[in-house]
Amino acid sequence: MFEIALIYYLIIALLILGLVGMFYAKNHKLQVKASGLMVILALCVGVISFTSLPSNFTAQRIISIVIGLIPLLAGLLAYFKKINFTVFKVIVALFTIIVSVYFIVF
Q1: Across the chain, how many H-helices and E-strands are there?
Q2: What's the total number of domains in the chain?
Q3: What is the CA radius of gyration of the chain?
């Protein structure tokens, strides 16, 4: 039981540190690195949520993967200059928080 609580607290700590790094860092390179790490965190939490659900919970499994992939798609759009970096940061922050809460609740 302690290991699961440790994983939850680690995810929450990484989420808080990533958000602070994305929005309050003065250096643009640091903001880009923090945004990339938040995308990786969202993907990892989405995969953990996907694998932790039983196989008969198909809808919830699909939702966890889709919510985890949205920050990656936003990153690709920001890379190809289709969206602004500020919009990218907001999308990444929003969906990383959503996937983390989804993982903790379900």
Answers
A1: 4, 0
A2: 1
A3: 14
Residue 100 CB neighbour total at 10 angstroms: 21
List the end-to-end C-alpha distance of the chain, in Å, as a whole number: 16
Is 0.85 topped by the overall pTM? no
pLDDT in tens, 4-50: 889 888 888 988 998 998 889 888 899 889 888 888 888 888 888 88
Distance of CA 43 to the CA centre of its chain: 6
Longest dimension (CA), the chain: 46
Q: DSSP letters of 54-93?
A: -TT-HHHHHHHHHHHHHHHHHHHHHHTTSS-HHHHHHHHH
The answer to whether the CB of 98 falls within 8 A of the CB of 58 is no
Alpha carbon distances (Å) from 50 to 6, 37, 39, 64, 84: 19, 20, 16, 6, 30
Domain that holds residue 88: 2-105
